[in-house]
Design a protein that fits this description.
355 residues; mainly alpha; 77% helix
């Protein structure tokens, strides 16, 4: 067999991968369009009059009708939906009723806090969850296995708000080991607002880049508890899936062959088995990350964390539907984008997925 014949199949995989990526982008566009349709319908069926929220209950009928026309609510529904999609594609998610600021501007200011919290939680979940899952899989039925499964079950089933309240009561209220609610103490909040150069919106990164190490230390004391809580939730999911994947790999023939040849056990597990386990784990970690980004509403509310979750919650209580729907669109776009990216990485890492 010639060299060209052997390399031809490998070379043909890349056009196929590109076609799959293009298909993923089309799927993403369709999903986003469906998401916009859902949020548009929600905005029209909820028992909240957006015009009345703007002009107030004491407005005259003429003022009410003028505001209704200005919002385009007098047009047919299909035309309203077209305008809604067009504006969303141009980055216009409406104007907040409470602040009269563009919703996208407020989300851009709040999202880095959620991103920082969810990223740190995911990192903690992976660092702790993967070794715990491997330990449980290599010693099935042992005490270690039972402990890992029990810890995972608790993290997977206990309400997040309850764990957050208990954490605040014990580690902040009683032991005073961590900072209280919020991202910083009040004195550092003033410094953040007026003297710190904002690069990313993530306090840990910005304070380090500015050399404000006292602020960095203060931010760590505040983020460690909510990030640890989200990390625990992520660890429960990651350890459970790692254990399942590893059990399947350790029963394969190539693992038996490696052991018969006298290969060290650590190499069998962490090099050969983990190489195959890491492929499906990519999707698991991506889903966990997406869940923390979209599902940290209760955590942010409990810890007064000024992120996207608390922004949507506050807007919902204030009947600020443009902010609620805009935040929902952003969360949905982030979720489907992470799914698409994880699928692409999955196909790049696993050659079998390209065939």
């Amino acid at each position: 067999m010639s060299v060209s014949e052997t390399t031809a199949p490998a070379a043909s995989r890349w056009p196929d991968l590109l076609r799959r990526v293009a298909g993923g982008i089309v799927t993403l566009a369709i999903t986003v369009l469906g998401l916009l349709l859902v949020t548009f319908v929600i905005g029209r069926v909820v028992p909240i009059d957006p015009v009345l929220s703007i002009v107030g209950e004491r407005a005259t009928q003429e003022q009410y009708e003028a505001a209704r026309q200005a919002l385009g609510l007098d047009a047919p529904l299909w035309q309203q939906f077209y305008i809604y999609v067009r504006d969303a594609l141009h980055g216009d998610l409406g104007t907040s009723i409470r602040s009269q600021q563009p919703v996208l501007t407020e989300i851009a200011r709040r999202f880095p806090a959620t991103l920082e919290l969810a990223t740190l939680g995911t990192i903690l979940g992976v660092i702790l969850g993967v070794p715990a899952g491997v330990l449980a899989a290599t010693k099935p039925g042992s005490i270690a296995d039972q402990v890992v499964r029990l810890v995972g079950l608790v993290g997977y089933s206990m309400p997040v708000f309850w764990l957050g309240l208990i954490g605040l009561l014990v580690f902040y209220g009683k032991l005073d080991w961590v900072g209280g609610p919020g991202r910083l103490d009040a004195s550092y909040e003033m410094m953040l607002e007026f003297t710190l150069t904002r690069y990313t919106g993530a306090i840990l990164i910005d304070s380090a880049l500015n050399g404000a190490w006292d602020m960095f230390a203060n931010a760590v004391t505040h983020i460690i508890l909510p990030a640890g809580l989200l990390g625990y939730v992520s660890m429960a999911y990651v350890s459970r899936m790692t254990r399942s994947f590893m059990l399947g790999e350790l029963s394969q023939e190539y693992i038996t062959t490696a052991r018969v040849k006298g290969m060290p056990e650590w190499r069998v597990i962490w090099v050969h088995a983990m190489r195959n386990v890491s492929v499906p784990l990519i999707t698991v970690v991506a889903l966990s990350y997406a869940y923390l980004l979209e599902g940290s509403v209760l955590t942010e509310t409990i810890f007064a964390w000024p992120g996207l979750g608390s922004y949507i919650t506050d807007a919902l209580f204030a009947a600020d539907m443009p902010a609620v729907l805009g935040g929902t669109v952003v969360v949905g776009v982030v979720f489907v984008t992470l799914n698409m990216v994880s699928d692409i990485v999955y196909r790049l890492v696993d050659p079998r997925a390209r065939t």
